[in-house]
Design brief:
- Strands 3-2-6-5-4 form a 5-stranded antiparallel beta sheet.
- The chain has 337 residues and is an alpha+beta fold.
- Helices cover 35% and strands 26% of the residues.
- The radius of gyration is 23 Å and the shape is globular.
- The chain has helices at residues 43-60, 118-136, 151-166, 177-181, 191-207, 229-240, 293-316, 319-325, and strands at 6-8, 11-19, 33-37, 71-73, 77-85, 88-95, 98-103, 106-111, 211-218, 221-225, 253-260, 267-278, 281-287.
- The protein is built from 8 helices and 13 strands.
- One of its GO terms (cellular component) is Mon1-Ccz1 complex.
- InterPro entries: Ccz1, CCZ1/INTU/HSP4_longin_1, CCZ1/INTU_longin_2.
- Residues 211-291 form the CCZ1/INTU second Longin domain.
- Belongs to the CCZ1 family.
- Residues 13-137 form the CCZ1/INTU/HSP4 first Longin domain.
Length: 337
């Protein structure tokens, strides 16, 4: 009778964010911690983990001046480091997969550290920041007093509200090299169909003054986008994830977003990102100010929905769209730089 092999796959051990300048004195170590998952971890363990991360960052600075430490591997864990803004560090600690084996001297764990690829999970860590920044802005911009909170407490509240939900939806075992590139897929179209979509976008922006930018997707493939590629990838990740949910077809999902302008590199605030799904088409509209939100939605329903349905049917009849939809998931993909 064979003995079943006990295996443990890749898993998240901890995820935390800290800023050393918030607790520079001895006895103030707890003030450095802005977010820590799992939240039920005792405070001594949190302080110990943050202190170890600080020591690793300082040690790495003896060899480089750009604070470029990215990962540290031990037998049982892999620690990933990212400094998205000056002074703010994000740390993700992964449990290394292992198998429980037996030998003459007893049972032991055989760890597979090579199964964790730094580039892939560094990209996952960076993407977690980009998602926060898309909807809430930078960490620094949230470091301001709230109604009943001081600046740091306000930032902590925003981090807990966002990452408390975001981390629950991380599918670390499903991450692959495509996550590392952060790329999007464009749908190849002939000129006539592309011009029809472009004319539709131009009509929307000309008819509805509050609408400043648009994204047009078919089966999650990009046909038109007016925003930078980095934020485009983040938005598509959001649309395909559990954080985006629609109660019924054509239902609006409206959120405030911060989009980085390609020309200046500065964040531009859109008070509304309205996402509409009609059949296989997803349309995202970025608006600055809206006086009567419900009236705008009613007008959009009357003007846009019929055309979206018609365009979706036309796209579905194209060989380019049908061949892409039926593509073998194991088929090779090409990445262009």
């Amino acid at each position: 009778m064979s003995i079943p092999v006990i295996k443990a796959g890749l898993s998240l051990r901890s995820f935390y964010i800290f800023n050393s300048s918030f607790g520079p004195k001895e006895g103030e170590e707890e003030k450095k911690i802005l977010f820590y998952h799992p939240q039920e971890t005792d405070i001594d363990s949190k302080i110990k983990d943050v202190g170890l991360s600080e020591a690793i960052v300082k040690f790495s600075n003896t060899f480089t001046n750009d604070e470029s430490v990215q990962a540290m591997h031990t037998q049982k864990t892999c620690q990933l480091y990212y400094q998205p803004e000056p002074g703010f560090w994000m740390i993700m600690v992964l449990n290394v997969p292992f198998e429980r084996k037996t030998r003459e001297t007893g049972d032991y764990n055989e760890y597979h550290g090579d199964d964790i690829h730094d580039t892939i999970y560094q990209a996952v860590l960076r993407q977690s920041y980009k998602m926060f920044r898309l909807f809430l802005g930078t960490f620094e911009s949230n470091l301001k007093p709230g109604e009943d909170l001081d600046a740091v407490a306000n930032l902590i509240g925003k981090l807990e509200e966002f990452y408390g939900k975001y981390i629950l939806h991380l599918k670390l075992k499903d991450c692959d090299v495509l996550d590392a590139f952060g790329s999007v897929q464009y749908l190849p179209l002939n000129q006539l169909v592309f011009l029809r979509v472009q004319n539709f976008i131009n009509m929307i922006e000309a008819t509805f003054e509050p609408i400043k930018q648009c994204i047009f997707l078919y089966d999650d493939q990009v046909i038109w986008s007016g925003i930078n590629p980095t934020d485009l990838y983040t938005i598509i990740e959001y649309l395909n994830g559990p954080m985006f949910q629609t109660s019924s077809p054509g239902q609006e999902q409206s959120r405030k977003v911060y989009i980085q302008e390609q020309a200046t590199g500065q964040d531009k605030v859109y008070n509304f990102m309205v996402c509409r799904k009609v059949q296989n088409v997803t349309l995202c509209l970025f608006l600055e100010q809206v006086e009567n939100e419900q009236a705008l939605y009613d007008e959009l329903n009357a003007v846009i929905n019929p055309q979206l349905s018609s365009i979706s049917v036309s796209l579905g009849q194209l060989p380019e769209a049908t061949s892409t939809a039926k593509e073998d998931p194991t088929a090779p993909k090409f990445i262009y730089f």
